[in-house]
Design brief:
The chain has 485 residues and is α+β, with helices and mostly antiparallel strands. The chain has 13 helices and 24 strands. The strands form 5 sheets. Strands 5, 6, 7, 8, 9, 10, 11, 14, 15 and 18 form a 10-stranded antiparallel beta sheet that branches. Helix 7 crosses helix 8. The chain starts with 5 loop residues before the first helix and ends in a 6-residue tail after the last helix.
Length: 485
């Protein structure tokens, strides 16, 4: 089973020797970020800073910084535990494409242990303390000024709750949050995100949008906030599916939303139509600064918390960072769903060095001419995979996770006059390389074996790869100790 809350996970990590308490005073201005980045890149433990300058809240960092810790947090032995469960939802009679994805997730609502359940405020630890009016002071929360050119201090792991003003469909998302002052937060809602759409609909209707942001949530909820689910699929259904039990929710005090009852801190407020403030720059997960832009400014009316709360955050920047395990979980969890949309796919890999959306390496069992190009265009039409800038297609016998083998295939199997596909399309809001924002050039590389029907008519056909003689290889393996090597 996954852990019910953050603090029970931290206790378990400490028992395992995988959490380090830092008792020395640390400065959230640059110092914490430098410490965490070094520890993460060295594969080090989770960190609990007990004495953060300017705040009386401990700060939990690098909690999901290794695959081992994220798997433990979610109660899994391997990421395939969830992909296998998702595969179990996908029956042969399901249609292909997005209809099949929605029908598969529709089954989650029929599982009694999956849908979230509401609890009374008296049973919700996150509402043990309620602050309103002049008692609201976001300076009490340790926001991080991580990189020298950042535009201010940010909360990087606040789970943002909104709902569509017309349909009432809930959305849970993970966005960076700039602290403008003690009662104002900047909402960095990228153009492709559901919460941005909720705000635009509310503004068009001339209505305020209620927002609740939860910190230190149960691990499965934190993961679900990062998952690329279709907009009409409830993240809390998926969180319950991942953790194997229902997520306990509680009504907020001042906005018509629900949040995890076992969170550490929740801030509640309303977005007024058209109220914007400059947000950024920010050293983002791309490893580059994203520029300053106007984004909605949220006024905080209420803060609820546990009696002795702690805050959780992450450091993003040049990979690898704590984003890595979260991205790898998504890659593995959603393979069965991607196969519904693009059934030609055998396996895929989204390299962390590409920010998980800049590059996709895909293997296929090639069956006909231009099969690779068909798969490229299908991926560019598949939900958030549409933002992928580079797609490398290899044969099914290539291990897509072995970047040395992939590069060997891509560099050796490609005639760039015929095997390179260049198109234009949408790119991530944070992409700095496109010459204008939101769209740019994309490329697909066909690194598969080429067929005569594709125009490869050289004498002898496509060459065979160099391989060992099987009998000799087996004999050498059996005699290996005799060689003294």
């Amino acid at each position: 089973m996954a852990y019910d809350d953050l603090r029970s996970l931290l206790r378990a990590l400490e028992r395992d020797g995988d959490l380090k308490r830092v008792k020395a005073e640390v400065d959230p201005y640059l110092e914490v970020g430098e410490i965490v980045d070094r520890v993460n890149k060295a594969g080090g433990p989770a960190l609990l800073f007990e004495n953060v300058k300017g705040s009386d809240m401990p700060l939990a960092m690098n909690v999901y910084g290794t695959d081992r810790r994220l798997l433990k947090a979610l109660g899994l032995k391997a990421y395939t535990d969830i992909s296998d469960k998702i595969g179990g939802l996908l029956k042969p009679e399901l249609p292909q494409g997005f209809v099949g994805v929605r029908e598969a997730f529709g089954k989650l609502g029929t599982m009694t242990h999956v849908p979230p359940k509401k609890v009374k405020p008296s049973l919700a630890p996150v509402q043990e303390v309620v602050l309103t009016g002049d008692d609201v002071d976001l300076d009490r929360l340790p926001a991080l000024f991580t990189w020298p050119e950042d535009g201010g201090s940010f909360f990087n792991l606040g789970l943002t709750h909104t709902k569509h003003p017309e349909t009432g469909v809930r959305n849970l998302g993970l966005y960076r949050l700039q602290r403008h002052d003690k009662r104002t937060i900047g909402m960095h809602w990228q153009i492709h995100k559901d919460s941005a759409n909720h705000y635009q609909v509310a503004a068009r209707r001339g209505e305020r949008l209620p927002v609740a942001i939860a910190f230190g949530c149960p691990p499965a909820v934190t993961y679900a906030s990062t998952a690329p689910l279709p907009g009409d699929i409830d993240e809390y259904l998926f969180a319950g599916f991942v953790q194997g039990k229902r997520v306990e929710m509680v009504d907020c005090r001042t906005v018509p939303l629900q949040v995890p009852a076992n969170a550490e801190v929740v801030i509640e407020g309303w977005l007024e139509p058209g109220e914007m403030l400059p947000e950024g720059p920010f050293g983002d997960h791309t490893g580059f600064y994203t520029p300053q832009e106007p984004f909605p400014a949220l006024t905080i009316d209420c803060v609820t918390m546990r009696e002795r709360p702690l805050l959780q955050s992450i450091v993003v920047g040049r990979p690898p960072t704590e984003d890595g395990p979260l991205g790898r979980a998504t890659e593995r969890f959603f393979l069965p769903l991607l196969k519904i949309i693009v059934p030609d796919i055998v396996d895929y890999h989204l390299p962390e060095s590409g920010g998980f959306h800049n590059c996709a390496i895909v293997s296929i069992d090639k069956k006909y001419p231009k099969h690779a190009q068909k798969v490229m265009h299908a991926i560019w039409g598949a939900h958030m995979m549409s933002l992928t800038k580079l797609i490398v297609v290899v044969d099914a016998d290539c291990d897509v996770h072995n970047l040395h083998e992939v590069s060997w295939r891509a560099l050796g199997n490609t005639d760039y006059a015929r095997d390179l596909t260049v198109v234009e399309g949408p790119v991530d809001h944070l992409d700095h390389s496109s010459y204008q924002q939101f769209w740019g050039g994309k490329a697909g590389i066909d690194a598969t074996r080429k067929l005569p029907a594709e125009g490869y008519t050289r004498d002898g056909g496509w060459p065979e790869m160099v391989e060992s003689d099987p009998e000799t290889a087996d004999r050498v393996t059996k005699r290996w100790r005799e060689y003294g090597l």
